[in-house]
Amino acid sequence: MSTKTSKRTRKTLDHARIYIRANYNNTIVTLTDPKGAVLGWSSPGNQGFKGSRESTPYAGQVAAEAVAEKAMTMGVKTVDVYLKGMGPGRDQTIRGLINKGLDVTSITDRTRVPHGGCKSPRQRKV
Predict the structure, then answer these.
(1) Which residue range(s) make up the domain with 40?
(2) Any idea what the CATH number is for the domain that residue 76 is in?
(3) DSSP string spanning 16-74?
(4) For 21-36, what is the mean pLDDT?
(5) Could you tell me the sign of the dihedral formed by the alpha carbons of 62, 67, 73, 76, in that order?
(6) Is 119 a domain residue?
(7) pLDDT confidence bin for 115, thresholds 50/70/90
């Protein structure tokens, strides 16, 4: 009995999206196509950083460079960057993408901003 195996086709596209989630403890970089389907991702822990070194700006840059390498193999030339979070690796992560040769067309900050805030505690009765 012969089984038929099909070779997996590699996606090639010239424009993609990159989502950066910068926490205080980690930075996660995700590469998606324009519709939002994930093509690849990386994080400092994936690149060999452990513990408190994951939260450094350099670790975010290394993770971004790894995603940029994946993007270049798929033929991506231009990217839209979406940021979320207030971690230390925000700016350096974008620099890592630019250093590897990706053309960043737009940077959108999607960090949640509180408005109104929590209800203040009641007045103390003495």
Answers:
(1) 19-109
(2) 3.30.420.80
(3) EEEEEEE-SS-EEEEEE-TT--EEEEE-TTTTT--GGGGGSHHHHHHHHHHHHHHHHHT
(4) 94
(5) negative
(6) no
(7) confident
Give the chain's domain count: 1
| Amino acid found at 77 | K
Contact at 8 Å (CB) between 59 and 44?
Answer: yes
At 72, list the tokens. 């270049």
Is the Cα dihedral 45, 46, 49, 55 positive or negative?
Answer: negative
Helix (H) or strand (E) holding 15: strand 15-22
Kindly state whether residue 116 falls inside one of the protein's structural domains: no
Within a 10 A sphere around the Cβ of 114, how many other Cβ atoms? 6
Look up residue 49 and give its two tokens.
């950083």
Residue 82 DSSP one-character state = E
Query: Is the dihedral angle over the CA atoms 49, 109, 94, 15 positive or is it negative?
Result: positive
Residue 70: its pLDDT value, please?
94
Of the candidate ranges 23-32, 70-79, 115-124, the one whose mean pLDDT is the lowest: 115-124
- Residue whose token pair is 């989630």: 21
**Higher-scoring residue by pLDDT: 77, 5:** 77
